[in-house]
Every structure is written in structure tokens, then in C-alpha cells.
Amino acid sequence: MLSAATAAAPLTRRAVLRTAFTATVLAGTAAALAPVLRARRPRQTLTPAPLAEEETYRGRHIAVDVAGVRIDGRPLHVMRRADGSYLSGINHFQSYGTPMELARAAVDELGTAQLAFAATPHHG
Predict the structure, then answer these.
(1) Rounded CA separation 98/80 (Å)
(2) DSSP string, 30-68
(3) Which three-class secondary structure state does DSSP give residue 100?
(4) 95, 99, 88: which is closest to 49 by C-alpha?
């Protein structure tokens, strides 16, 4: 029977390099996968603003509901951004926190002009 001292293989340069290489590969893999694993965690979602408001602003009737935003009965094209804010075709360089804020800003921008009625939907 072999003793414990003779059973253990001597530590060679090759074994040390193999261990260091393996540790480096594992660390690199963990660093590469960390963003992917972090992205799989459930994120806090923004709840949409309640959509059932009407008001008169600067003499214009604004209605915000599930059908969309209307100014004097004419639809305003509204887009929702990934961060939860809203923007429109009237001023697509600025975002607003709620559809009502967006509609007020559109009224300010329109002045006395009216929105055009959309003839038909232009998306597929």
C-alpha cells in the first residue's frame, strides 16, 4: 500500500498553469453572462396613466381615453416611449409624463390651427 505522501502527485508547472487558465476562463464567462442574467430579473414596470380625462384648455376640448387623445374631436397621434413618457407628431422632440400634458402642449403649439382628420390608417 502507498503512503499519503507518495499518493499525491507533485505540483507541476503544467498543473498550476492549467488551474490558472481554468480560473480565468470561468471568471471571463461569469463576467460575460452577468448582464444577461441581470436582464432576466423582473423589472419594475411603469403603470400607465389613467385614460379617462376630459377638460377644456385654452378654449379647446381635450379628451383622453382608451381610444386615444382627441383635440376638438380630432385624433392626435400619440406614441408611448420605452421610459413611459409620451410624444406626438406635433412636437416629437419633447416627451411628456401623461397624455393630458402632451395634449395641452399640442394645443399650445397648434395655436388656432386644427388637427387634420386622418383619412385611413397608414399602418399595414
Answers:
(1) 10
(2) HHHHHHHHHHTSPPPPPPPPP--EEEEETTEEEEEETTE
(3) helix
(4) 99
pLDDT at 124 over 50: no
Residue among 124, 122, 114, 112 nearest 76 (CA):
114
The Cα–Cα gap between 114 and 53 comes to 20
Which three cell numbers, joined as nine digits, stand for 66?
382608451
Of 96, 93, 106, nearest in space to 49 by CA = 96
pTM over 0.90: no
One-letter amino acid of 68: G
For residues 114 and 46, what is the distance between their CA atoms, to the nearest angstrom? 32
Q: Nearest-CA neighbor of 53 among 42, 68, 39?
A: 68
Q: Is 7 left (phi over 0), alpha (psi -120 to 50) or beta?
A: alpha
Give the number of C-alpha atoms closer than 13 A to the C-alpha of residue 48, restricted to the C-beta side: 14
What is the reported pLDDT for 52? 75
